[in-house]
Structure formats: structure tokens, C-alpha cells
Design brief:
Layout: H1 3-9, H2 14-21, H3 25-34, H4 39-49, H5 53-57
Length: 60
């Protein structure tokens, strides 16, 4: 999953992405570490980052 890479490209901190997406900071940190999450969470993150699910879920 490319969450961390995309977040950094957009110049967003984890707390800022949490604020924009409504996803808890700890959840975002866990996703960046493990690379998996619920689809509903992915939808919130992809909308906040303005990327498609495909782009977000690509292997690094």
C-alpha cells in the first residue's frame, strides 16, 4: 500500500491526514506499518488524499 508515500508527497503529516479524513491518527500509523485495513477506511483516506483506491492500494 502506498499510503505513506502519497501522504508525504502531498506534504501531509499523520495528524493532518487524520483531521482531513476522519480516520484516527493511530489507525493511520497502523495502516502505514501493516499495509492493510478495512475498505471503509480506505475510502475515507483515498477521498482525503484525492486519489483512487487503485492508486492507494498499489504495491510499493
Amino acid at each position: 500500500m502506498k499510503l505513506k508515500e502519497i501522504r508525504i508527497e502531498r506534504g501531509l503529516s499523520v495528524p493532518k491526514l487524520a483531521e482531513l479524513s476522519g480516520v484516527p491518527r493511530r489507525t493511520i500509523q497502523d495502516i502505514e506499518k501493516r499495509g492493510d485495513c478495512m475498505v471503509s477506511t480506505l475510502l475515507k483516506l483515498s477521498k482525503a488524499l484525492d486519489v483512487s483506491l487503485d492508486e492507494l492500494c498499489q504495491e510499493e
